[in-house]
Amino acid sequence: MHCLKFILPILAALSSAVAGAEERYTLFEDVYARQGVAEKFVAGSSWFPFPEYADREAWHGYFAVDSAFVVRRAERYLDYRWQTIPASAYLAFERTGDRSAMERPEGDNRSALISVIFAELAEGKGRFLDAIMDFSWAAAQEPSWMLSAHQIRQNSGRSLPDDREHFIDLASGRLGAILSVSWYFFHEEFDAVDPSISYAILAALKKQIFDPYLDDGVNVQNWWSGLANTGHVINNWNPWCNSDVILSFLLAGQDQEMLSAALQRAVLSLDLYMDNICSDGACDEGPIYWENSAGKVLDFINILYDASGGAFDVYSDERIRSMGEFVSRCYYRNGYTANFADAAPKLPDMSVTSYRFGKAFGSDELLNFGLYQLADAQIGSFKYPKIITGDIYRTLSAIKASRDIRADVDRLNREVAASSFEEVRESLRSCVPASIWYPETELCYMRNGSDWFFAAKGGHNGESHNHNDVGTFVLYVRGVPVFVDAGVGTYTRDTFDEGRRYSIWTMVSPWHNLPSPNGAEQKHTKKFRSGNVSCSPSAGTFSLDLAGAYPEDSGILSWRRSYFFSPKGRPSLRISDARSLSERNSADEERFLVKGEVVLPGNVWNGRKVRDGELLILCGEDLVMKMTYPASLSVRVEEKKLEDPVLVRNWGPVLRRISFSSADNAPLKGKYEFIISEIR
């Protein structure tokens, strides 16, 4: 590791260099630099806003009704044997692209350690102390805490850990945080058995976390920090890794100079992340990543606020508040959300993080969205949140927030008894804007009174977790997906290999709701982007020129796609593609991805023959949609059999692609128009 006397000047120079960009985001650095703030962070101080292990009454109040569940879940780990990950499991990633051979035992180990930590905090009888000690000791002996898929940042380029090199990834930061919490709560118990246990944990933290975080020599490998200025897209790894790492420094760091250097690095790194993402608050990685992007920014803020005794306070920042509210605004209902990029179509339970975010930033919309996610339509009432064990700090925060959440759940259930479940549940969404436009990210979400939800995007094809999807859209009607985005399947080696990623069908424009003008496909990198974008949420219009998303040699002068979404009256969606080509190389293709069955012209449905120029989409739940199209286009339907378990879980066994084809000699200029309506 570089000596600390070199680290601080290098950080200062780096901060000055990146400050050369006009109006760079500097909120975190500015707050940290305020008079007296940095001095509030003291190595070894007892700042953690949780009771000491021995305070049984306080922990009983925290766990309350969850105590029995937490203990019961951990009891199965009393006989658990920590899994040593063999070399072949690491090497499976480079041999076959298999990540699970290494990640499965890593995940099992992590779940075991977190579970016994919380069980001991809940019960307090010492039953789980040996397991905590055994698992913490075993983790401290591991050669690396990184996942096999991320080891390739080593100089060797291999997936098997090299103990001479240590960097930080999501997994190592996460395990470091777990061990720091383990040491913080139980180091006195460890020391009573043998001080070597605490020594081993602290030594491992230094090797795996502290040294590589402060070493400017591995900034390229720690690309997520933004400090190497490599041009790599800074994504959710940044707040995720930074929040876990800085928690470790603040809980287990013993050296004030190292802590100060880490904090200075962390606030600069978070500012670089905020400067890299769009300022409108949207998450271009997709809503499923919200909890690990905006949600991790919240964790970072909470940690620094508590560790400084409230001196580090950014809770009035409107931009961060907007980042939080994004997850509420891109949500539809029945679990469905607008799932562009690698996001899944259904939002997992983010109730506690949403609630915490709303509380911290004074957003009733976000707090209510957290409560909304606790509604259970099957039983017609609101449930208490589940305690999950994937993230140590977030689980502690959930336990801390649970008393307030339980009180609000009880209040809502009293309201249900006085009125109706549906009325109370929907009241929690009353403050969500009917339509919203994110002008920098170029995302729009529109709702109407007929329970239609439409979302579309512009932007560029160099986003984090990018798909080549500039101009695509999704449409849900009465709780049912109609026009869909497939999302992403199981992560493999190919998913994050730029040379292979766009050989995966879910990533490319022909499998999105997009045209192939002149037979061309969209390409990736930031160069390929939308142009002349305009949106009027109140009028229900969104339009953009797609020409810039396709290769320059594709012969596309302009391709103006316009969406007209009826905000009132009889619901419909009209899609207009106005084209201008310099030459005709191939037919134009217009493609749409649907979940339902398709009835083509000439076929009979419900005693009615489908006419030329229209088709029907049978979506289930008694929902039938009609799509009209130009007579100049021929139509066909392809079934895409789904085998990937993630895609099957999201969509079932099949998706269908509707393809409209022009004549090979279609005019260079003209317009294709499609109208989507509901048959009632």
Break the fold down into its secondary structure elements and pairings.
Layout: H1 4-18, H2 27-33, H3 56-63, H4 67-75, H5 87-96, H6 100-123, H7 129-141, H8 170-193, H9 196-214, H10 237-252, H11 256-276, H12 294-307, H13 318-329, H14 351-361, H15 364-372, E1 375-376, E2 381-382, H16 392-418, H17 421-427, E3 435-438, E4 443-447, E5 452-457, E6 460-461, E7 473-477, E8 480-483, H18 498-501, E9 515-516, E10 525-529, E11 531-536, E12 541-545, E13 556-565, E14 572-581, E15 589-594, E16 597-599, E17 604-605, E18 608-609, E19 614-620, E20 623-628, E21 634-641, H19 645-651, E22 654-661, E23 669-679
Antiparallel strand pairs: 1-2, 3-4, 4-5, 5-7, 6-10, 7-8, 9-15, 11-12, 12-13, 13-14, 14-23, 15-22, 16-19, 17-18, 19-20, 20-23, 21-22
Helix pairs in contact: 1-11, 2-11, 4-6, 6-7, 7-8, 7-9, 8-9, 8-10, 9-10, 10-11, 10-12, 13-14, 14-15, 14-16, 16-17
Short description:
Helix content is 38%, strand content 18%. The protein is α+β, with helices and mostly antiparallel strands and 680 residues long. An eight-stranded antiparallel beta sheet has the order 11-12-13-14-23-20-19-16, with no helix packed on it. The protein has a five-stranded antiparallel beta sheet with strand order 3-4-5-7-8, with no helix packed on it.
Structure explained in plain terms:
There is one protein chain. Helices cover 38% and strands 18% of the residues. The protein contains 19 helices and 23 strands. The strands form six sheets. An eight-stranded antiparallel β-sheet has the order 11-12-13-14-23-20-19-16, with no helix packed on it. Strands 3-4-5-7-8 form a five-stranded antiparallel β-sheet, with no helix packed on it. Helix 9 (196-214) crosses helix 10 (237-252), helix 10 packs parallel to helix 12 (294-307) and helix 14 packs across helix 16.
